[in-house]
Amino acid sequence: MSETAERRDTDARTAEEIRRHHAVMVADLDRLSAALVEAAESGADVAPARSALLEWITTVLVPHAAQEEETTYPAAAGLPEGHLLIMGMLAEHDVIRHFAGLVRGTKNPAAAGAYARALYETFASHQRKKNDYILPLLVNEPSVSLTDLMSNSHGHAHHH
Ligand SMILES: [Fe+2]
């Protein structure tokens, strides 16, 4: 196998690993945000469900976005086909952070649940774009090693 084909193969495996990690994140956010809605609807104290969601946002979501902004996003932004897509993805990080701030800031339990579900829907759509457009772009780009990008990143929580 040529060196380029070998790298493409390794990168395809790395991309699958990243997609699996994304699926776990989306499922976790689905569960945590649904729990907040259920607590609000049942009239129970929403504080535990809200804390669990905010804890996940702080320890998983925010570091994940920061890591992307240092690894896959700059690599894809450097390619002509990726440049505008990444500008859109960065704008979506702002939307995601905005919804997270609304969940944290509101005093109304029903509103907190609704913002949490809006966060979930936005994040799920955002991750689909990463999986379906950005990862294939990087896997197929001979000048980029997705595997090296991920193993060189600091504070990388999900790779091995
Ligand atoms: Fe992202």
Characterize the structure shown.
The radius of gyration is 17 Å and the shape is elongated. It is built from six helices and no strands. Helix content is 81%, strand content 0%. It is mainly alpha-helical. It has one domain (3-140). Bound molecules: fe (ii) ion. Fe (ii) ion is lined by residues 65, 68, 89, 93, 126, 130.
Descriptors for this entry?
mainly alpha, elongated, disordered C terminus, binds fe (ii) ion
Secondary structure elements and their pairing?
Elements (H helix, E strand, L loop, with lengths): L2 H40 L4 H24 L1 H6 L5 H23 L3 H31 L6 H6 L9
Helix pairs in contact: 1-2, 1-5, 2-4, 4-5
The structure holds fe (ii) ion.
Number of domains: 1
The total strand number stands at: 0
The overall pLDDT average reads 94
The fraction of residues in strands falls at under 5%
| Poorly predicted runs of 5 or more residues | 156-160
Largest sheet: none
Written as H for each helix and E for each strand, in order along the chain, the element string is HHHHHH
Q: Radius of gyration from the CA trace?
A: 17 Å
Percentage of residues in helical conformation:
over 70%
The separation of the N and C termini measures 26 Å
Structural class: mainly alpha
Work out the helix count.
6
In short:
With 160 residues, this protein is mainly α.
